[in-house]
Amino acid sequence: MTVLVTGATGFVGSAVARKLLAMGETVRVLVRENSDRQNIDDLAVEVCVGDLTQAETLKPAVRGCSAVFHVAADYRLWTRHPEEMMQTNIEGSKSLIGAALKAGVERVVYTSSVAALGINKDETPADETTPSSLEDMIGVYKRSKFLAEEAVHKLVAEKKAPVVIVNPSAPVGPRDIKPTRTGELIADAAAGRMPAFVDTGLNVVHVDDVAEGHVLAWQKGTIGERYILGGENLPLATILREISELVGRKPPRISIPHGVIMPIAYIAEALTRLSGGEKPLVAVDEVRMARKKMYFTSAKAERELGYRPRPVSEAFTDAISWFREHDYLG
């Protein structure tokens, strides 16, 4: 049987597709007409052209599939058109899962994010049961993923949709072509382009471990449950120090208060709107999120799925090697 992967041209999706191919699965990928396909150019996959916002294009994508890995999402911390992100992340997910149900797909693995979860105020690692609400969600991306998860849970409860949810943290590793904000941070630190930083923290994980977690959720996950796929919780200062050591640079030592960065973010967003740029140097929501240390535990995935993330130093090493090889370090 065939398995479908959405978002396979992206960072996490391509890792999931590669993992499935390595297992001997027949893989079909859903891609938009104008997608950058360099992450799948070397993969023996069946390409199905479609769009999450065009429900009629999803029927041929899911036809004949035993499983669907819905990894695709509109992931931006700033956008001129928040309604487009909501449409893709919420309505697109509902349409895909609905099409999978009608096609008789046995299992759907839905890729959410730790962005949709609650955070403990005392900075202890949060888990799948940590309370959260829409009001806690900072920015349109986090709100869209929170509401999308709610919609998925509703489909499981009301339509018996066979969905398992995974919540990756901040993936790091090869083929981060855009790159993600975390990837930008690593590339900038490795290239010596980050003279200062803010006091924050995040959970970092190797992208290939996230891909492994998707497969484990498919094989062992309980329908309707969600599983955090994370790695290590690290302050940003520690992340920058480890990256600097790997490339033989001195780590940045200047910590900038959030209150100093916030006015810069407002100015950056205003200039981006006026200039027609793609994204600001730093976004207001990004600064707001940085006020909280986003620490999580993958204990549930480890206990129930057998998930075992590797040391995060290996993720940093692989990411730096790939960024260097593809001229991201300047």
**Distance from first to last alpha carbon:** 44 Å
Number of helices: 11
Major beta sheet, strand line-up: 3-2-1-4-5-6-10
Mean pLDDT: 94
Rounded radius of gyration (Å): 19 Å
CATH topology of the domain at 2-172 and 205-232 and 295-311, by name, is Rossmann fold
Low-confidence stretches: none
Task: Indicate the CATH class of the domain at 2-172 and 205-232 and 295-311.
Answer: Alpha Beta
Write the CATH homologous superfamily of the domain at 2-172 and 205-232 and 295-311: NAD(P)-binding Rossmann-like Domain
For the report, how would you describe the main beta sheet? 7 strands, parallel
Name the beta content range.
15-25%
Shape: globular
Q: What CATH architecture of the domain at 2-172 and 205-232 and 295-311 would you give?
A: 3-Layer(aba) Sandwich
What key attributes describe this structure?
about 325 residues, alpha/beta, Rossmann fold, about 15% strand, globular
Plain-language structure description:
The structure is a single chain. The model has no long low-confidence stretch (mean pLDDT 94). The protein is built from 11 helices and 12 strands. It has a domain at 2-172 and 205-232 and 295-311: NAD(P)-binding Rossmann-like Domain (Rossmann fold, 3-Layer(aba) Sandwich). Strands 3-2-1-4-5-6-10 form a 7-stranded parallel β-sheet, with helices on both faces. A 3-stranded mixed β-sheet has the order 7-9-11. A two-stranded parallel ribbon has the order 8-12. Helix 1 (11-22) links the parallel strand 1 (2-6) and strand 2. It has 330 residues and is an alpha/beta fold.
